[in-house]
Amino acid sequence: MGLTNNDTFKKLRVALKLRDDDIVQICALVDFKVTKSELGAIFRNEDHPKYVECGDQFLRNFLNGLVIHMRGPMPKKKTSEKKSEE
Question: Which InterPro entries match (predicted)?
Answer without folding.
Answer: YehS-like
